[in-house]
From TrEMBL, chain A:
<dbReference type="InterPro" id="IPR053377">
    <property type="entry name" value="Iron_uptake_EfeM/EfeO"/>
</dbReference>
<feature type="region of interest" description="Disordered">
    <location>
        <begin position="22"/>
        <end position="42"/>
    </location>
</feature>
<feature type="signal peptide">
    <location>
        <begin position="1"/>
        <end position="20"/>
    </location>
</feature>
<keyword id="KW-0449">Lipoprotein</keyword>
<dbReference type="InterPro" id="IPR034981">
    <property type="entry name" value="Imelysin-like_EfeO/Algp7"/>
</dbReference>
<dbReference type="InterPro" id="IPR018976">
    <property type="entry name" value="Imelysin-like"/>
</dbReference>
<feature type="domain" description="Imelysin-like">
    <location>
        <begin position="152"/>
        <end position="359"/>
    </location>
</feature>
<protein>
    <submittedName>
        <fullName>Efem/EfeO family lipoprotein</fullName>
    </submittedName>
</protein>
<keyword id="KW-0732">Signal</keyword>
From TrEMBL, chain B:
<dbReference type="InterPro" id="IPR006313">
    <property type="entry name" value="EfeB/EfeN"/>
</dbReference>
<keyword id="KW-0560">Oxidoreductase</keyword>
<keyword id="KW-0456">Lyase</keyword>
<keyword id="KW-0408">Iron</keyword>
<dbReference type="InterPro" id="IPR011008">
    <property type="entry name" value="Dimeric_a/b-barrel"/>
</dbReference>
<keyword id="KW-0479">Metal-binding</keyword>
<comment type="similarity">
    <text>Belongs to the DyP-type peroxidase family.</text>
</comment>
<dbReference type="InterPro" id="IPR006314">
    <property type="entry name" value="Dyp_peroxidase"/>
</dbReference>
<comment type="function">
    <text>Involved in the recovery of exogenous heme iron. Extracts iron from heme while preserving the protoporphyrin ring intact.</text>
</comment>
């Protein structure tokens, strides 16, 4: 009962934004017309998708021929083509939108790399084709609000399980490298493993003891001799330049991430938790990552930062259907804000790797921080869909 | 008189009553996604008239021919906040000014934004003024040179409307200006007799700016004195005695308010010049009384100029040390409207001395004529220089006042 009152108040107030300012700067879509896609939009989506399919086919050819230059330029064209009509897709076919977005992004990102990983890209391009086919044949979803949210949560749960699986696999590779004493390889694997953890950090944090065992920083522990987890090995790799005693820590880390994977399977998520988690991820990024406090030895803070943002974006993607229904303008703004921040982060990559935090100037950090604030402010409003 | 000064508003309401009225009709600021405002304008006047029966005499009207906070008697606390606009879209800037205006309207009347009845969303208002009255809150705003032209770029298509004398204060001898604490696109002077009320406004201005502007610097100041008595600075001397010389509509017109030659949006406006002046308190406190008085050219306790017995008696420059502060001010032959505040900034880690001083704020009709020559003269010769150092600087053009329904900067932006 209380919820319905709140929502109607929000709708009233949102509608008033238009009248209160005298002249309308931005026309907002009428809430009531969300369920029906205008024919114009439908045609635009069909045309855009057909064009994107063509470009993706060309990309697949270029990948087969291992033509780096062509792959790069097609990556950019695909992104341009997608951006030109993605808003219409997001509002009409949110579920299909999420899939296209998921596979389109890495193809665009790869266009900025010096070296292309053709194996990975072959797989991504084929998944993008599938997603486009699904989009072309999509029917408008007309689920009830509660169903939409339940589906969002189910999608997100799948993602969490996927990421904990990846975390376990990648941590095992990292542990192998540590135990074999291969410092360079260990450093590489470390960065990869961190991503999976940081993408689901709020979930991991809800598993109590496991989080400090896996992710504690030196300042977090009472007894430094009992310190375990990623950051203990980070110190060994980048600060101590010695892996002595680290085999045991690496073994324990593998055990702990497996325990996390097990717990994630039985984890009950509800929409509130998921939405709150997206906010927590951005707060994580705003407090420890943007300040360079998370990875004090390796300076990989941007890797963690991007992973936090990405984890938060996954939540955003899974709640798009609900946003479309309750607050489409918020969806538009979130989309723009994610694009802006992702664009900025991309400029701090060299060959697909984030540069070290200590290579960023104060001004560059400030730009990232301001854009993150904007995104966080928007994200803090997403609970209006619940 | 009513066109000359923003009168304390006859219609006043307590913050709590305002809140009650507004919550019941579902009115909130941070509804739009960026925390951007949507206040139902129609509801505000009604709400105000409803509660007129309960006057609380600490509301200064926001609307009028002039901005409040210029010739308004000085409140006890001030924040000076500088923003850099980050958006490149004029429409966004307008949107920001609109939501700032709505928040200003609300907070200067003693209201707060609805704190929110959805426990899952952040409250619209930060809440620290819920039981507090308006406390004579004023918000005065101005635009810096970079708002019009930045690196030769006409950012928002308003370069041709740049006022005649809006330029950064040129380099002065002996200054130690920190660029990170100077200038800015938009400056807000927020004053109140309750520091928490003033900071509440500042904090919410910052919140509302997210995605449109970023905070450059923020200064806080305080000043205290009985009503009608010239307040004292941290050197223990009266600061602003000369304001009395122009304290009438005719004098203000000559000294403070922008002239006919200015673009029309400056009608009723003024220039705000800002200098952050570090004062070496420990050194000063070890100086003899006669050294201190010779530095100013006035007697410390009475505030009277040398050779006089009363603070407001006309100064006879021949009786003053030639390089004293007051003698140089008189030599320049110019008046400005002073509205400074003292500040403290913690401890200098090297010396253990207190970082403290004066946030000099001066309003003038033409700073090129009134302020800059005076500043140059003082920076070269002033005895005070032994005890002070200018560490930050700014110049802002403050438009005239608003009528209800207009937004901040509207006459400039449209």
């Amino acid at each position: 009962m209380k919820k319905s009152i709140t929502l109607s108040a929000l709708v009233v107030a949102t509608a008033l934004t238009l009248s209160a300012c005298g002249n309308n700067d931005t026309a907002k879509p009428e809430n009531t017309e969300q369920s029906q896609a205008p024919a114009k939009d439908h045609n635009a989506i069909q045309e855009g998708t057909a064009k994107l399919q063509g470009l993706t086919t060309q990309l697949q050819d270029a990948i087969t021929k291992q033509d780096t230059e062509l792959v790069k330029s097609l990556g950019k064209s695909i992104n341009d083509a997608w951006l030109s009509y993605e808003n219409a897709v997001r509002q009409t076919y949110p579920l299909e939108y999420t899939d296209v977005e998921k596979y389109e992004m890495p193809i665009f990102s790869a266009s900025a790399y010096d070296k292309i990983d053709f194996n990975v890209l072959t797989d991504t391009a084929s998944k993008l084709q599938d997603a486009l086919t699904a989009l072309l044949n999509a029917k408008e979803s007309s689920g009830e609000s509660s169903e939409i949210l339940t589906k969002a949560v189910a999608n997100y749960k799948l993602y969490v399980e996927e990421q904990t699986d990846n975390l376990t696999k990648q941590t095992a590779l990292f542990a192998d490298a540590v135990k074999s004493g291969d410092v360079e390889r260990a450093k590489q694997e470390y960065a990869k493993a961190r991503v999976f953890y940081e993408e689901i950090e709020p979930i991991a944090e809800s598993f109590g003891e496991l989080d400090p065992k896996i992710d504690a920083r030196i300042g977090d522990v009472e007894d430094v001799s009992a310190w375990t987890g990623f950051h203990r090995i980070e110190k060994a790799l980048w600060e101590d330049h010695s892996l002595e005693g680290m085999s045991q820590v690496a073994d324990q880390l593998v055990i702990d991430t497996k325990a996390l994977q097990e717990q994630a399977k039985s984890y009950e998520l509800d929409p509130k938790l998921v939405v709150a988690g997206a906010m927590e991820l951005l707060n994580e990024a705003a407090t420890s990552k943007i300040t360079g406090e998370e990875e004090i030895y390796s300076h990989l803070d941007l890797v963690d930062f991007a992973a936090n943002v990405n984890g938060s974006k996954t939540v955003y993607l899974s709640i798009i259907p609900a946003l479309n229904e309750k607050n489409p303008e918020l969806g538009n703004q979130l989309d723009q804000s994610f694009q802006q921040l992702e664009g900025t982060l991309r400029t701090h990559q060299t060959n697909g790797q984030y540069i070290a935090y200590d290579k960023l100037s104060t001004e560059e950090i400030r730009v990232i921080s301001d854009q993150l604030s904007e995104l966080s402010n928007l994200m803090s409003q997403t609970a209006s869909i619940l | 008189m009513s066109t000359e000064e923003n009168q304390p508003a006859g219609s006043t309401i307590s913050r709590r009553d305002f809140l009650k009225l507004t919550t019941s009709v579902g009115f909130g600021l941070a509804i739009g996604a960026a925390g951007m405002a949507s206040i139902n304008e129609k509801l505000i006047p009604e709400a105000k008239s409803e509660v007129n029966k309960q006057p609380v005499n600490d509301v200064i009207a926001m609307y009028g021919d002039r901005q409040a906070g210029i010739i308004t008697p000085q409140q006890k606390y001030m924040y000076l906040v500088s923003f850099r606009i980050t958006t490149s879209q004029k429409a966004d800037v307008i949107q920001l000014f609109k939501s700032w205006t709505k928040f200003s309207d609300l907070s200067t009347s003693g209201g707060t934004m609805k704190t929110g009845d959805n426990p899952l969303l952040p409250p619209s208002d930060t809440g620290e003024t819920l039981e507090l009255s308006a406390s004579n809150l004023t918000i005065t705003y101005g635009f810096g040179p970079t708002f019009f032209l930045e690196d030769g770029k006409d950012r928002f298509g308003i370069a041709k409307k740049q006022p005649l004398y809006l330029k950064d204060i040129p380099r002065m001898p002996r200054e130690n200006i920190d660029p990170s604490l100077s200038g800015g696109d938009v400056c807000l002077q927020v004053c109140a007799d309750d520091q928490q009320v003033a900071f509440h406004a500042v904090r919410n201005f910052i919140r509302l700016s997210t995605g449109y502007a970023t905070l450059n610097w923020l200064q806080e100041g305080f000043i205290s004195g009985k009503a009608g008595v010239t307040p004292r600075n941290l050197f223990g001397f009266k600061d602003g005695t000369a304001n009395k010389l122009h304290d009438n509509p005719e004098g203000n017109k000559k000294v403070i308010w922008a002239g006919q030659e200015e673009p029309s949006w400056m009608t009723g406006g003024s220039y705000m010049s800002y200098r952050k002046i570090r004062m070496l308190l420990e050194v000063w406190d070890r100086s003899s009384l006669s050294d201190q008085e010779n530095t100013f050219g006035r007697h410390k306790e009475s505030g009277a100029a040398f050779g006089k017995t009363n603070e407001f008696e006309a100064v006879d420059s021949s009786k003053l040390p030639v390089t004293s502060h007051v003698a140089l001010a008189k030599q320049s032959g110019q008046l400005i409207h002073r509205r400074g505040y003292s500040y403290t900034d913690g401890v200098d880690p090297k010396t253990g001395n207190v970082n403290a001083g004066l946030l000099f704020i001066g309003y003038s009709r033409n700073p090129e004529e009134q302020l800059i020559p005076m500043l140059k003269l003082m920076q070269s010769k002033d005895k005070l220089n032994a005890y002070t150092s200018h560490i930050a600087s700014g110049m802002f053009a403050c438009p005239g006042g608003l009528t209800a329904g207009q937004y901040m900067g509207q006459s400039l932006m449209e």
